[in-house]
Write the structure tokens for this entry.
Amino acid sequence: MVSSLYTAASGMIAEERRLDVVSNNLANVDTPGFKREGITFSDYFYHVGLVPGSSKSFVKEPSAFYNFDAQNAVTFPDRHYFDFTQGPVKETGNPLDVAIDGRGFFAVSTPFGVMFTRAGSFRVGPDGVLRTIGGYEVLGRVTPNSSPEPVVVDSKTPVEITADGWVVQNGNRMFQLDIRDFNGDYNRYLEAFGNGLFRAKDPKNTGTFVATLHLLVGYLETSNTDVVKEMVSLISCMRHYEACQKAIQVTFEDVTAKTVNDVGVVG
């Protein structure tokens, strides 16, 4: 009986975690460049010799002693991950709004170091520095082989960004936007920082500069959250939570009541 309570309670905790993730995805459905988050769960078996993972993950050689008992299982969050697929783009008409067509991230300078984002909504500040909506400095390179530095232009002169990533003023190429890419799955290299920013898990690996790229000028990449799918997940999450809650209620009210009222009665 106690084991079943642990199983049901762990299910409720797991669904609370999933609800937080789904709610955050829905809350950011209109956030430019937002990447939906996901969460996976694993079973943890209390039998000696088993480790988090599947029932086949034995520390020792399997024997009859290690047979899996469903009542001794609980669910726990395994890992968080991000869906880095490109989101839909929408036209804004703003020459400083750009969307990356393909892989890569804009590199920006923050008080916490270099961060990466897919949100390409930029503005030129009074000091001539090209900044994100959050006020972070956008990084660029004077030449493809030079070191990245904040993009600085004349704030009183019109600025445009070309499809190949160059910041142009008075017909002159000033900086090429510092766009970085990582080899393979981004989840291996990046972790969420907040406000649409990601940072490198390994400070020594900040990606490689993408010299040949294609930007959509006058467009913004929107969130890749699918509202319908997230709503389905939300409903599923609530129903699973209610089922686990009902299991606990039945255990306490029915089983415990019968134990006290029936088993304890002297015939």
